[in-house]
Amino acid sequence: MGDERVEAMEIDAQQRQEVAAAVPDGFNADYLRIYYGKLFPYGDFFKWLAYGNDAKHPGCDQSYIGRRELSFTLENDIYLRFQSFDTAAELETSIKEKCPFKIDIGPVYSVDPAKRHAYAQSGNNVFVPVERELIFDIDISDYDDVRYCCSGADTCLDCWPLMTIVIKILDTSLRGDFGFNHILWVYSGRRGVHCWVCDSRARKLSNEQRSAIADYFRVYKGGENSLKKVSLTGPVLHPFLARSYTDVLKCFFEDKLLHSQQLFASEERCQKILELIPDQNVASELHDKWQGNRRSSISKEDVNAARWEQLKTTLQSGKHKTQGLRRCVEEIVFSYTYPRLDMEVSKHMNHLLKAPFCIHPKTGRVCVPIDPNNCEDFDPTAVPTLSQLLGELNAAGMQIDSENDWERTSLEKYIRFFRTSFLQPMLKACKEELETAYSAKLQQSKNTLSW
Ligand SMILES: [Zn+2]
Predict the structure, then answer these.
(1) The whole model's pTM is what?
(2) Any catalytic annotation for residue 392?
């Protein structure tokens, strides 16, 4: 490449940065209006929620998408529930006009939720949720007792691996143990991740079946105040838990969290781990050992690894094996790493959940999809912010208008991922199911006629 071209490119990149920097950080209605005007992927969003019913096929349920509840939270905290849309254009017009600070997705109801009162008066149509993705909501603030770098809604690259663990464990199990294929993971914009299981089988689950699936993932017994949050019972671990432990939890605990969270770096932190050991004698034996090696030659960096090794050796040594301590090492690892789900969200069809591609008001970050196959690489601090995107739009402003403005921003890779890795395979499956169901119906009516 000639020097001149290199120089020209450098200038270009520099200019783009300058223009990008010209949009100050923030979140407000003016920014949001541009985002909804130019970047929000209405078409893909609508196609997702229509699940193939927006096609011309005679087997399509034309009322399907119009029975889905969306809810908008407006700037002044006005909450508009039970919004519904028959077409992508209607959805787009409404979002552009109302400029919601937050969009939530609810269930598909038996009737159009916007007309629920009219139906109630007519008395012959019950307004009930009939379909809903199986969803999981995970907040990193639920891990405050096992992370020392941040607390509350804050998160950093030291504690984010706790969310990576959630994705790995749940995604593997939802696919392998439950046979689901169309799973969407979304960054919540600030403190966690959302999971949408979109297979038609998942959407049709009853509340009882949802509860059963949520319970499958539950290892935390007892309340908030119970010291021991995990109890692994029975002679052998359930295969799902055993696999989670060896494939994910153990490595994350030993290779990452032990050091990044400095889990054994203070008396208080050690004490918290010792409290998970049911045998007082063993706990005090370790406590004494660690009191001793505080003064020993172990450097600050090694203290976590060294104490963890001592704990494992002590608990797994021959003399303690029979005392019900066999599980204790695993229980400690589970306590510090295993996914903590907000069960209520998963159990009920009518729970609302924030839509992907919303902007989080506090961080200004887009709720982008996360690729579960590369979730280790996901960096929440690198997710595009509203102001960054507007800066990129400005910088691209001089170029010829493309049909999709998002193609000229860092939102592109997320929309492409949503489209090619999630939406297209899912719509293909929806189409096949729809055609199968339709031809079965035709066959049935043919049989009835010939009879
Ligand atoms: Zn952190």
Answers:
(1) 0.91
(2) no
- Token pair listed for 338: 């295993």
Residue 189 CA to ligand 1 center (angstroms) comes to 15
Assigned domain for 229 exists: no
Domain contains 304: yes
Ion ligand 1 contact residues with beta carbon within 5 A? 149-150, 156, 158-159
- 139 among known catalytic residues: yes
pLDDT in tens, 42-87: 999 999 999 999 999 999 999 999 999 999 999 999 999 999 999 9
Residue 25 appears among annotated catalytic residues? no
Amino acid in position 10 = E
Instruction: Count CB-CB contacts under 10 A for residue 132.
Output: 25
Active-site entry in 54, 133, 139, 199? 139
Q: Where among 284, 307, 337 does a domain terminate?
A: 337
Q: For residue 380, report the distance from its CA to the centre of ligand 1, in Å.
A: 11
Burial of 342 (0-12, 13-18, 19+ CB in 10 A): middle
Whole-number Å distance between alpha carbons of 82 and 108: 10
Q: Does some domain include residue 227?
A: no
Same domain, 63 and 206: yes
* One domain for residues 332 and 346: no
Q: Assess if residue 7 is contained within a domain.
A: no
Instruction: Tell how far the Cα of 148 is from the centroid of ligand 1, in angstroms.
Output: 7
